[in-house]
Amino acid sequence: MIHFLYGDNDFLIDRYVEQIRTDFLHRHRDGGVVQIDVGNVAPTAIMAQLTAVSLFTMNQLIIIKAFTSIADNWTLLEKNIDYIPETTEVILTDIKSLSKVKNLAITKTFKKLKASGTDIHKMELIKPWKMGEWLADVIKTRNLPIDKNAQRKLLELTSGSDNQQARLATELDKLGSLAEPITVDVVAKYVEPDINANAFAILEMAILGNSSDAMAMLKQLQLSGEDSNRFMGLLASQLLALTAAITGAKLKINPYQLSQAQRLASQLGNSNAQISKLKRISTKLAELDEQIKLSTPEDAWSRIEIAMACI
Is the CATH number of domain 2-122 3.40.50.620? Predict the structure, then answer.
């Protein structure tokens, strides 16, 4: 049996690899597991190992991560699939950022894998607006004592992560080890906020006139080495959510980010006051963006502080 896992969700791919490994060792207690490093083994040597019959164990599992990072691996596989012994189970993964194979799903090798009955799974990142549903399902499955408000807080604090699903899984493992109910306060205590959560907090404080706290958070970000251009991108994302909250525009916004923006909008007065404030914020951030493009990193943070103080 061959398993081929591809897509842009490295977290799900790694989880599935471990699941297959565990199942294999449960079924074959005397089986052997071999992991091949594609960077240190030539493609021809990899094919020789895949097609060889093990002299030391009846069944073996061969794991090759980032298999497509070497184009020749993919080309040679098509010619060798039929020669892999039935007693050998194989896991091949494609790490999208490292792949050297273009249009993978329409290649001859991919078609040959499908025709041979390969277990093929495409692992895609979960859309932000579906993350809450996934989180609720995992919490229910694991029977974790996390209330709804704490779930919302978790989503809020991790909303800017490169792979929010992976971050949430890590935080659930940490929170699940605590011998206490997991409330909003517990989440706030143990989960470090993502930069995206900080961006919203800073923008909210600046808009509502709490400039001293906003300045303090900005200074912390600057000292942590955060990139000013990345922070500006996150501010733009928060402005987009605020725009959707005020105007009702149908934009694909993370529902928790949108709910935060709606809460903020409700504090800005009636609809006319909200629109007026939105125009002012949009103009200020557009001006700030142009200024930062011509600034040094140190000067950029100073300009951000000035803008947040008078937004």
Answer: no
**DSSP character at residue 268:** S
**Domain map (residue ranges) of the chain:** 2-122, 129-190, 195-309
Residue ranges in the chain assigned as alpha helix (H): 10-27, 43-51, 71-80, 108-115, 131-142, 148-158, 164-176, 184-190, 195-207, 211-223, 228-247, 255-265, 271-293, 297-309
CA–CA gap between residue 306 and residue 186 (Å, rounded): 34
Fold classification of 195-309 is Zinc Finger, Delta Prime; domain 3 (1.20.272)
b/e map 122-155, b = 16+ CB within 10 Å: ebebbebeebbeebeeebeeeebebeeebbbbbb
- Kind and range of the H or E element at 144? none
CATH of domain 129-190: 1.10.8
* 206-218 exposure pattern, b = at least 16 Cβ within 10 A, e = fewer: bbeeebeebbebb
Give the pLDDT of residue 109. 95
Question: Could you report the per-residue pLDDT of 176-234, keeping only the tens digit for each?
Answer: 888 888 999 999 888 887 777 788 889 999 999 888 888 888 888 888 888 888 889 88
For the beta carbon of residue 163, count every other beta carbon within 10 angstroms.
16
- In the structure encoding, which two tokens stand for residue 199, read together? 């961006």
88-93: strand order across its sheet = 32-35, 60-64, 88-93, 2-6, 119-122
- The helix (H) or strand (E) run that includes residue 35 is strand 32-35
pTM equals 0.62
Q: What is the mean pLDDT of residues 134-160?
A: 89
**Helix 228-247 vs helix 255-265: crossing angle, to nearest 10:** 70
